[in-house]
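FIELD: query
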Amino acid sequence: MKKILAACLLAVTSLGAQAQEKMPVVASFSILGDLVTEIGGDRVSVRTLVGPDGDAHVFQPSPQDAAVLASARLLVVNGLGFEGWISRLTSTTRFAGVTTVASEGVQALDMEEPDDHKGHSDHKGHSHAGHDHKPAEKPAAKPAADHHHHGSQDPHAWQDATRVKTYVANILAGLIKMDPAGADYFKARALAYDAKLDALDQWIVAQIASVPAAKRKVITSHDAFGYYENRYGVEFVSAAGVSTQAEAAAGDVASIIRQARKEQIKAIFVENISNDRLIQQVAREAKATVGAPLFSDALSAKTGPAGDYLSMMRYNTEQLVKGMKLN
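FIELD: result
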């Protein structure tokens, strides 16, 4: 009788352990990893390929990354050509799980021509918060073949908190597909996070409104803030393109220095994933000081100022506002 009871207890314990087993999910970079964790909660175990302060533009997957991906059931990527290495990695590892493209369906912005580094001020039809007109936007398509440059659309859509709601919807759909039993749990968490995104968006709008319109100009190391500009009405100027691999031409750097001097732009920033050599040169020539690093394509460590997406957006906005008020 005791043996039967022991066997029953072992069976119940095993079932309980199975019920609590978390679904292994891999996110391509840290910002997506945070979003997946927020929606997946206790039902997922999230691993990130490009970690905090990592640059997805130049990332080279290791054998350890391949092993992590091979064990995952769900892979979440940004798409829009951001992860040029991802299809090669999934092919090499023979990844048998499901891939969710977080940006699918987002209203994507077209990129500038590669030799146009004058910032976004020359673009027509921008729609900033509180304005009625809309930019030329296209719904994001699924990622194409493996490549090491971005396509015709800007991949940094997470820089607009309203567009991240599309990311949340896609992540939610991917989690439910792989774990239908957790559907109600995932939906509740997604709904709560959407409310946080709405509050964040309204807060950013209010913060930017505290800066006179003529002062809303910023110089950054690479062109990663097009969506922030489009939504919140800050003009970003950068010598390099949307990829950190892009080399800035001497003429472009000189043009930005002239613009900074002429327009008295003191808000000059480098990003946590970028070399600061170019920005230091611009700041030196423009007699300005480089501000605290912005977080564009990667979060900070958990103990840093941008350990999650919401904190990243708040921190960046605070630094931008502080810098622009010096213009």
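FIELD: remark
The first strand starts at residue 23 and ends at 29.
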